[in-house]
Specification:
mainly beta, Transferase(Phosphotransferase), domain 1, 3 domains, globular
Length: 850
């Protein structure tokens, strides 16, 4: 037993947490990062066995690479002459076994936990990891309702069949006899027989756990282990409907399918299982809407124009067309009144104080963003005389707060001028610059505002009084009806719409709402002021409508086959929202092409990067097909199939084409990982506290140059050798941009900054509308892009010595389509590809949601 104060590596023991046959677990403090962790000290029999330690290291790396919110995170592992240990996140809460000791769970909670378990299993299975010991003791429920799968000690990693494992994570419990290759009562039939197992054995064990959550009784239980195993092989559990009360027939069928004796008759994957459960999640809430469905593609993250969108199924369209949908458990009719009928995208929407007038901004067809007003029952919209404006808020007296002339910083981080204006017309009066979002205070005396100041986002409540700032960004601020609190979305990664919901008071006391969302946009206070409603994707990618009290656990209000975005809630409880079918793709031309090639792969293809010879395209899938943490692919530009390399955001191809530089998004801050394009193993390149952004390989392939920000500091450019070491700053703070191939210059805000130090010099011939995209191979020219209002783009070569420019490509897009954020071009300027966006949005005023 280790005493408090004892050091294990860089971890200081605080107190014991538990002990068992596989080691002792302690609460400890990470002295480097000043955080609490759990440290498991392995017994000597594992420490002295070289094969066990090697296997432990191999599997710890595999589990750590999962970085999934429903799997216990492994931070570190190590061995000294006296100790072998593993370091994990420290959890506060209780195991599912402790929860079940009090009996069956409410059906709603059982579905909620089952969904999270299925998502964790799906992430593990995608990496080739089979748990093989799923049971209530190995499922942990945190104090905020998050499910964590523990104890991959019997996990089977893709490799030699039947290879045993030494990895044990934090469970606080020992392993009892009978758990050598699983736990009796939770084993699959193939485990009982000692046969080769795959991911479907976890599906069976999941079914046993689900059955127990619903009934409070074990599915298979005998007087001895032999009798229990015999029941697993030959018997079916008692009917759920007579064991645990009223259970939805669809849920009963899901459990039964998991418990099929033959693996071929179970769900094919944990992902499919999660989709089946997703269809029930809304129906299990007494205050939910009637229509629920499996996850569909989301908005995606780093694209500024598309808001929380996905393809809408025919069934949902019927409801959104104005039909009535009764909430079966609440008995409340829900009515959808359609407000818009044109093709394009909606960017913002708010209700006026009368509860009837709607002000919204939209881009219809190939038209630029404009402001409109309309009312329910009228198919027409009135164009307001404020060009390129988004509606941020409407005061109690009917005065508009607008965001004018937004400019993109990166992705969804986009700021403009906050202005006051009248709904009846007249000139808008500017109030504040560099504003992301704002909301009127209830008495109309001023605003709460999100501003971009000194290269950081900050929340001012009221305007002029900073109460919160972040190196990421903030969006969607809304003030409570009593004016005491402001709710907002806190995004940890600049430009990415992942985030969490938070509330802050005027003294800066911040309260988080449980949940980290893969997409979060749109907030409003309920008319009562007691709940915050918001639209977000809590799992998968489709945005649903949620509600939560301050600090409380969110509940589902509405799910549809697709995505919704919350605009506002009226005093009478009517909800203004829109749905948007959206897609991001990749299109471009190679040297000599007369027409475009579309190299999109799944539903949200982004961040294209071309190899120097134009033969290989790197792309990232950020939609449903890419998974919660995105997926990185390479694809031949001849149109062959794409090859998935791993998870994360792909940002660069090495000069020899053998490696891809990828940002792993979880945990935060994400680290750089090198993924091989062929045979080989991935390599974690960085182990620091920098928030890593875009990166580039050097011409000789020996190092990378990348943008990143240290905690509490603005971003800058860094250099990092591929063989390891620490990152070296190369530019002043706030200076970022693509480095020249010779590594000597970085363009930023109209100037060229030497990476070796010295004064910057202006870029001759650079126009205000130019966006610097890349360098020519000889480091003598820049490729710059201009984005016309009607979409498309123009690409120029700009000589940095003379300022002479030449038009290389004039990109034209079809109406309703825009060229997106990302552009890639070969060093000779002859070949290029870019991301494009399409969207179809419809605005609704909804009555009856609770």
């Amino acid at each position: 037993m280790l005493s408090p104060g004892f050091r294990v590596g860089s971890y200081e023991i605080v107190a014991p947490l538990g002990a068992g046959g596989m080691g002792e677990v302690y609460r400890a403090r990470d002295v480097k990062l000043n955080r609490e962790v759990a440290v498991k000290v392995l017994p000597e029999r594992l420490r002295v066995d070289e094969a066990s330690l090697a296997r432990f290291e191999r599997e710890a790396q595999a589990v750590a690479a999962l970085s999934h919110p429903n799997i216990l995170s492994i931070h570190d592992f190590g061995a000294t002459s006296d100790l072998a240990y593993a370091v994990t996140e420290l959890l506060e809460g209780e195991t599912l076994r402790a929860r079940l000791d009090h009996g069956a769970l409410p059906q709603r909670k059982a579905i909620e936990y089952a969904l999270q378990i299925s998502h964790g299993l799906a992430a593990a299975h995608q990496k080739g990891i089979v748990h093989r010991d799923l049971k209530p003791e190995n499922i942990f429920i945190t104090q905020d309702g998050r499910v964590k799968i523990l104890d991959f000690g019997l996990a089977k990693i893709a490799g030699p069949q039947g290879e045993a494992s030494s990895l044990q994570t934090q469970s606080g419990l020992g392993t009892s006899p009978g758990t050598v290759m699983g736990t009796v009562g939770y084993m699959s039939p193939e485990q009982v027989r000692g046969q080769v197992v795959d991911h479907r054995t976890d599906v069976f064990s999941f079914g046993v756990v689900l059955y127990e959550m619903l009934t409070g009784r074990r599915a298979f239980h005998g007087d001895s282990q032999v009798e229990t195993m015999n029941a697993i092989l030959k018997e079916d559990p008692p009917e759920i409907s007579v064991s645990g009360g009223a259970v939805m027939p669809a849920l009963d069928r899901i459990a039964r399918r998991c418990l099929e004796k033959s693996p071929a008759e179970r769900f094919h994957s944990a992902h499919d299982l999660g989709l089946a459960l997703e269809t029930l999640s809304g129906a299990s809430h007494s205050s939910g809407a009637t229509l629920t469905a499996a996850a569909a593609p989301s908005p995606r993250r780093l694209i500024p124009w598309v808001l929380c969108g996905a393809a809408i199924a025919v069934a949902a369209a019927a409801y959104f067309a104005g039909r009535h949908a009764g909430a079966p458990e609440a008995g409340v009719p829900v009515d959808y009144a359609r407000l818009t009928y044109r093709y394009g995208r909606i960017n913002s929407a708010r209700l006026a104080g009368d509860g009837k007038t709607v002000v919204y901004s939209a881009e219809w067809g190939s038209e630029p963003n404009r402001l409109f007003s309309t009312q329910a029952g009228s198919p027409d919209s009135l164009t307001l005389a404020y060009p390129n404006a988004d509606i941020a808020s409407v005061s109690s007296s009917g005065e508009l707060a607008l965001i004018l002339n937004r400019r993109i910083l990166v992705g969804y981080a986009r700021v403009g001028t906050l202005a006051r204006a009248s709904l009846t017309g007249g000139a808008a009066r500017a109030v504040l610059e560099d504003v992301q979002d704002a909301d009127w205070l209830p008495d109309g005396s001023g605003f709460a505002a999100i501003r971009y100041v000194d290269k950081r986002y900050r929340l001012e409540f009221p305007a002029g009084k900073p109460v919160y700032d972040t190196a990421g960004y903030i969006s969607d601020v809304r003030v409570s009806p009593d004016g005491a609190l402001a709710a907002f979305v806190d995004h940890p990664i600049l430009g990415d719409d992942r985030g969490s919901i938070a509330v802050i008071d005027r003294n800066g006391k911040r309260t988080g709402i449980p949940g980290d969302y893969s997409s979060a946009q749109g907030i409003a206070w309920a008319a009562s002021g007691k709940e915050i409603w918001f639209t977000a994707a809590d799992r998968g990618n489709a945005c649903g409508l949620f509600a939560a009290t301050v600090g409380g656990t969110p509940r589902v209000v509405l799910r549809v086959p697709g995505s919704v975005h919350l605009g506002d809630i009226g005093r009478d409880g009517k909800v203004l929202l829109w749905q948007a079918g959206a897609r991001s793709g990749i299109v471009g031309r190679l040297a000599g092409d007369a027409t475009d090639r579309d190299l999109s792969w799944f539903d949200w293809s982004t961040v294209p990067r071309l190899s120097s010879d134009g033969k290989t395209l790197l792309l990232t899938e950020e939609g449903d097909g890419g998974g919660a943490d995105y997926s990185v692919f390479v694809r031949g530009t001849d149109g062959g199939p794409a090859v998935r390399l791993g998870s994360g955001l792909g940002v660069a191809l090495s000069p020899d084409g053998k490696w891809v530089l990828t940002v792993r998004l979880n945990p935060n801050p994400g680290q750089y990982v090198l993924l091989p394009t062929g045979a080989g193993e991935s390599k974690v390149l960085t182990h620091d506290d920098l928030a890593h952004g875009l990166g580039w390989f050097s011409a000789d392939g020996t190092h990378i140059v990348f943008s990143a920000s240290a905690p509490g500091r603005p971003p800058r450019m860094y250099r990092q050798d591929l063989v390891g070491g620490t990152a070296e700053p190369r530019t002043p703070e706030n200076v970022t941009g693509p480095p020249s191939p010779d590594g000597t210059l970085v363009p930023f805000e109209g100037k060229l900054y030497p990476t070796g130090g010295g004064e910057p010099r202006p870029i001759p011939g650079l126009e205000p509308a130019d966006q610097v995209e890349a360098w020519s191979g000889d480091s003598k020219s820049l490729f710059v892009r201009q984005l016309p209002d009607a979409g498309g783009a123009k690409i120029f070569r700009l000589d940095i010595a003379t300022g002479r420019r030449a038009l290389l490509h004039d990109i034209r897009v079809t109406p309703g389509t825009r060229s997106g954020v990302w552009l890639t071009i070969t060093p000779d300027g002859a070949s290029y590809f870019y991301s494009y966006l399409t969207s179809q949005a419809d605005l609704f005023l909804v009555t009856g949601l609770r």
